[in-house]
Amino acid sequence: MDMSSANFESVVRGHHIYKSIWNPAVGERLDVSIERDNAHDRYAVSVQRDSVIVGHVPREVAKVFKAFITHGGEVACEVTGRRKRGNGLEVPCVYHFKGKDKIIVGIMQLLKLTTANKMYS
């Protein structure tokens, strides 16, 4: 099966919690993985630097990210801007998805629907 890639502009959430251990730099690449032991959110997906959590994927799209990773996809995060106020302190980024063609298409459609629904609710 062919592999594809896609990008999704978003943010790393929770920087206000991790600012003492992480100073984001534009262009920095971070790992993204399911956070299996998060007692507050069973769909939590963490953003990590050197295996240390420095933030999270926004809750609105975390379920979609988790499904993608569970089905063999890979996600990386690239910092694109300086931190800003949003839902706490957020760091602008692009999430890079890599996986099977069919799954990439489905995930991008889900992300588009999820973020469109958020804008109108």
Radius of gyration equals 14 Å
Sheet of most strands? 7 strands, antiparallel
Q: In whole angstroms, how far apart are the ends?
A: 38 Å
Tertiary shape = globular
**SSE order, one letter for each helix or strand:** EHEEEHEEEH
Q: Could you list the spans in which at least 5 consecutive residues all have pLDDT below 50?
A: none
**Secondary-structure class:** alpha+beta
Mean pLDDT, rounded to whole units? 90
Number of H/I helices: 3
Give helix % range: 25-40%
Strand content: 35-45%
What is the β-strand count?
7
Could you characterize the architecture of this molecule?
- This protein is α+β, with helices and mostly antiparallel strands.
- The chain has helices spanning 15-18, 59-70, 101-119; strands at residues 3-12, 29-34, 45-49, 52-56, 74-79, 84-86, 88-100.
- Strands 1, 2, 3, 4, 5, 6 and 7 form a seven-stranded antiparallel β-sheet that branches.
- A hairpin with a 2-residue loop joins strand 3 and strand 4.
- Helix 2 runs antiparallel to helix 3.
- The protein starts with a strand and ends with a helix.
